[in-house]
Amino acid sequence: MPSSVTPLKPALASTSDRLDLVERPRRNRKSEWARRLVKEHVLTTNDLIWPIFVQEGENLRTPVAAMPGVDRVSIDIAVEEAQRAAALDIPVVAIFPYTDPSLRDATGSEALNAQNLTCRACRAIKAKVPEIGLLTDVALDPYTSHGHDGLLEDGRILNDETVAQLVRQALVQAESGSDIIAPSDMMDGRVGAIRAALDTAGFLDVQIMAYSAKYASAFYGPFREAVGSSGALKGDKRTYQMDYANTDEALREAELDIAEGADMIMVKPGLPYLDIVARLKQSLGRPTFAYQVSGEYAMIMAAAQNGWIDGEKAMIESLTAFKRAGADGILTYFAPRAAEYLRRK
Ligand code: PBG
To answer: What's the mean pLDDT in 245-274?
Structure first.
């Protein structure tokens, strides 16, 4: 050690040397029961929404390579997954379709087909598992040949024409039994247009969970593999999804969605955006959700598979962090595993 550095104080030698501390925060951490007593945030199965990928076929499971433990499933298996979710007290499952490439076109017309995978999955789940909530995503990307969420003209996304299409997509989903319409497209004015159309069609009780603050993010990569849009996507989504450098803009987006009739707002991705979750919850006081997206799931799973972190502990820690930030619930691919963990506890 260089002689100019002051040596650290030696450890206190005896009890008479005891520090005169008024506060000793460690007292409240001294044992399991003491920690439970002062716990501020608790994760329960009520907080979980489980996104499920559906595909054509029967009795089929296709693993999603970048999402270990997640499969695309045929509708009959999706019904079993919904039964499993209901048995685990998970309130809601979210349906995402893997659309056959032959059904994808420039306008995403399959999105409007009442017989598409999403709509058939909704009807099948509603018939067999009526007690579970169903959420459906409104955006064109699983159905377009170019992988964008909206209609394209000369490389530009057309806002208002896209909204007209999304309204029709939302209506076929509501007619198929969707309980929560979740527009994930980030077009301006889509929440108001969808709310008006739902009300006119008599779907007064169908809720809207707006992806209000959805950022253009690298963390969606594995999802695009799961729904088969990654190969198709040309360019990026930065003219409609938000710039991750911004936070005031998230507040504005959420305010607009609420003014247009959103019942619930959502922030996406999740863990890197907990500041946004906290800000929206504190500023607006609305039911606020976060989406722990595919890339976040993949990172935890990949590290766990390498033995670099304890996957189960990281799962629960990350989900509890959402609650701490103020989220009322989390869309997460961990939902069934987290629910099983919580049941064991
Ligand atoms: C569709 C949509 C996406 C996700 C949910 N809905 C992909 C995207 O916007 O490109 C991502 C979910 C995830 O990564 O888990 N618009």
So the answer is: 98
Q: All domains of the chain, ordered by start, with CATH?
A: 41-344 (3.20.20.70)
Q: How far is the CA of 81 from the centre of ligand 1 (A)?
A: 21
Do residues 71 and 112 make contact, with C-beta atoms less than 8 angstroms apart? no
Ligand 1 pocket list (CB less than 6 A): 137, 139, 141, 149, 184, 220, 223-224, 293-294
Locate 99 and state its tokens.
Answer: 């659309």
Residue 4 has pLDDT above 90, yes or no: no
For residue 5, the CA-to-ligand 1 centroid distance in Å is 54
Nearest to 80 by CA among 125, 116, 45: 125
Please give the distance, rounded to the nearest whole angstrom, from the Cα atom of residue 148 to the centre of ligand 1. Answer: 11
pLDDT grade, residue 230 (50/70/90)? confident
Report yes or no: 156 and 146 within 8 Å, Cβ to Cβ.
Answer: no
Question: Could you give the CA distance from residue 240 to residue 235 in angstroms, rounded to a whole number?
Answer: 12
What does the pLDDT average to over 196-225?
Answer: 97
- Atom nearest to 333 CA in ligand 1: 15
In the chain, the amino acid numbered 313 is K
Cβ atoms of residues 315 and 345 within 8 Å: no
Q: Which of 126, 128, 268, 313 is catalytic?
A: 268
Check pLDDT > 90 for residue 177: yes
Q: Is residue 239 pLDDT above 90, yes or no?
A: yes
pTM for this prediction: 0.94
Catalytic one of 214, 237, 281, 323: 214
Residue 337 CA to ligand 1 center (angstroms) comes to: 21
Is 214 known to be catalytic?
yes
Place of tokens 């999804």: 241
Q: Mean pLDDT throughout 120-149? A: 97
